[in-house]
Give the backbone structure.
Amino acid sequence: MHSFDDFRAIVKADEPLAPLTWFRLGGPAAFFARPGTVEELVGLLNRAREQGVPTRILSGGSNILVRDEGFPGLVIQLESPLFADVKIEGTHVEAGAAVPLTALISQTARAGLAGLEVLTGIPGTVGGSLRGNSGGRQGAIGNFVVRATVLDSAGKIQVRERDEIAFGYRSSDLDEPVILSAEFELEPEDPESVVRRMRRIWIIKKENQPYGHQSSGCIFKNPTPEISAGALIEQAGLKGLRVGGAEVSDRHANFIVAQSGAKSADVLALIEQIRSKVAAQSGYELNLQINLW
Ligand SMILES: Cc1cc2nc3c(=O)[nH]c(=O)nc-3n(C[C@H](O)[C@H](O)[C@H](O)COP(=O)(O)OP(=O)(O)OC[C@H]3O[C@@H](n4cnc5c(N)ncnc54)[C@H](O)[C@@H]3O)c2cc1C
């Protein structure tokens, strides 16, 4: 029997996770906490490790599918004001892991700083985006990072400089238990032209992606820089394919949208159908971009 008695004030049992994710699917976390300080965060991680309880960090929940059985461990959400601060000094920007990208992009654009607007329309936070090096055709968050502050598995705060971090396509080696904050270097530019670029990107995204539906962004990684997973799924004739309440979006074939009554199991079964049909049609094995809990 696991116990978080000394953290009774902040740890909840059987906390529903679905409302905290963009898919809005899946079961509860066995334990759930929103620590208010780094000390509480370290204490929770230590207590979980001592008891062999698996842990996950939840941020915006826009790249996570929780299984219907829920997560049998401790889910920690960094939400306190401590993790949500933005400081801008000249072209240098420091942001806590829990800062939503939308807030960071609009604050830096208004301050006349260009770069992060390429991330317009990505509904995550700084922490979640750094973990998976979120981005699109125009660039990824890693392009602008100068350093990141993380909590290592011994509970020590470490600073990782840009040249010690490997960012790849939808990946980074920032795989310490917790990313706490990041610093970015941006380019000075007239705020109005940055905002115009933001608006243009947003219009294109809204046209091509099923915002307003329950989804988790692109389900699969592109198999090569030239070949998109969405194009392979569309060429296999799978737009609109449905399992239970899960459906391949007719707006963007690499999105699965959850209709009313959907279960995570429907999404998982649809993922398997897409994989096998795409492999049969094109020979490409699609790998997941979303995180499965
Ligand atoms: C409509 C829609 C459109 C999208 N468009 C794009 C797009 O254009 N490009 C793109 O790249 N992505 C896109 N996504 C996916 C998603 O928004 C990004 O991956 C986003 O950056 C995830 O951030 P998050 O805060 O929601 O992370 P979460 O979903 O909460 O977490 C993602 C992963 O990061 C880990 N993590 C989160 N925070 C931390 C932390 N502080 N420390 C350590 N690990 C952490 C989690 O444990 C999990 O493994 C889209 C999603 C949706 C729903």
Notes: The first helix runs from residue 38 to 50.
